Amino acid sequence: MSFTIAIIGRPNVGKSTLFNRLVGQKLALVDDLPGVTRDRREGEARLGDLEFTIIDTAGLDEGAKGSLTARMQEQTEAAIAQADALFFVVDARAGLTPTDRAFADFARRANKPVLLVANKSEGKHGDAGAMEAFALGLGDPIQISAEHGEGMGELYDALSKLMPEPVDEDEDEDDEPLTEEEAATRPIRVAIVGRPNAGKSTFINHLLGEERLLTSPEAGTTRDSIAVELIWKGREFRVFDTAGLRRRSRIEEKLEKLSVADALRAVRFAEVVVMMMDAQNRFEEQDLRIADLIEREGRAVVLAVNKWDLMESKGGGAISGLRRDADHLLPQVKGVPIVAVSGLMGEGIDRLMQAIQDAYALWNRRVSTSALNRWFEQAVQANPPPAVSGRRLKLNYITQTKARPPSFVLFCSRADAVPQSYLRYLINSMRENFELPGTPVRITLREKANPFAHKRKRLS
């Protein structure tokens, strides 16, 4: 039986630091600036032998109806409704504030068990503020330091009294390796990336059928990379919403650097990356840089042109134009699937989800060695490798070493002399023959061992 806890409190009391401490990873962005967290983030937490789901929330703050602050509070209220218990966090060093008192009433009205956590209690300076917390009427404050890991034992004792008795499960169930069938049905990890204000969060909200992620006309609303689970036509997906990626020269604030680093981690963790562009400003220089980054990371790529509902011309000619532009501007992923969508209106979502599944299947493709070497022999005969320094290059055979992405080893006589242009020729020919459009393909050169090398050394 799962148990869910929401961490609530005013901004900058250390909620995200406590979240990171409990999940054992630096998943949530942490900064001295108040209001870093905006969307709610879930994680699997452990405290001693206690296992539970923890939700990090935006700081409780008042804002005008419809404003970004008000919508952040709506996200927090949704987390409270989902939770079985609450951690109400206060800053022991700052002492109680009127905001703490106001939101203590808010926590009481939730009618759920509340543990009062006095964070930043390390040293003598935190004692006075922790004592003030008694006045909130939420029980005895638990003094901790989330940053330094102090007071976790006291938090464990209080939490263990709230949690239900654990249910015995089969111990050996998780120790068995995944079968091929299980691997084929496990959730596909998908990261949605792009420039700021490309409509990534709006698209995911429409996919989920709820306002799960904050959206705003202003660029830069999303900061953390937020993972959400969804099922589409019986297939499970784990989708990551990420912060918009701007040119490095324009990134000045520390917080934006942290957001970008979090987005890049999401790309490395993903299996399929959807590169989302604004239909009215597509294929800009930054879009091409992002697509190149995804290819270098070896992830399956799908291009999504969002806000298609705003385009005047939407016919087949416009779609064909997208295809031509993609092949011309992104030759390193030639044939990459490209889908016109509207996250706001829900247009093209089924096509995009199908394209993600198809790209994932290609990314896992394995080619038999016999078929590979038949193609290789024909490709070399049709276009032999050039002579370098007056000597012919000898290409022996090729074999696939792994999938995800498809990776091959080419055995040859002089690996350092094979031109990059010839490797590109082989990769493009392989894409056409084995139907690998848009998938990153890796070819590593390896020299075949010379059995007479030791005799040559002995003679010299």
Q: Outline, from the CA principal axes?
A: elongated
Number of strands: 15
| Straight-line distance between termini | 74 Å
> What is Rg?
27 Å
The share of residues in extended strands comes to 15-25%
What characterizes the major β-sheet?
Answer: 6 strands, mixed
SSE arrangement:
Elements: E1 4-8, H1 15-23, E2 41-47, E3 50-56, H2 68-82, E4 85-91, H3 98-109, E5 114-119, H4 125-132, E6 142-143, H5 152-160, H6 180-185, E7 188-194, H7 200-208, E8 226-232, E9 235-241, H8 254-269, E10 272-278, H9 285-296, E11 300-306, H10 316-329, E12 338-340, H11 349-363, H12 369-382, E13 395-402, E14 407-412, H13 420-434, E15 442-447, H14 453-459
Parallel strand pairs: 1-3, 1-4, 4-5, 5-6, 7-9, 7-10, 10-11, 11-12, 14-15
Antiparallel strand pairs: 2-3, 8-9, 13-14
Question: Can you describe what's shown?
Answer:
The chain has 460 residues and is of the alpha/beta class. It is built from 14 helices and 15 strands. It has helices at 15-23, 68-82, 98-109, 125-132, 152-160, 180-185, 200-208, 254-269, 285-296, 316-329, 349-363, 369-382, 420-434, 453-459; strands at 4-8, 41-47, 50-56, 85-91, 114-119, 142-143, 188-194, 226-232, 235-241, 272-278, 300-306, 338-340, 395-402, 407-412, 442-447. The protein has a 6-stranded mixed β-sheet, with helices on both faces. It has a 6-stranded mixed β-sheet with strand order 8-9-7-10-11-12, sandwiched between helices. Strand 5 (114-119), helix 4 and strand 6 (142-143) form a beta-alpha-beta unit. The radius of gyration is 27 Å and the shape is elongated. Mean pLDDT is 82; it is low at 167-179.
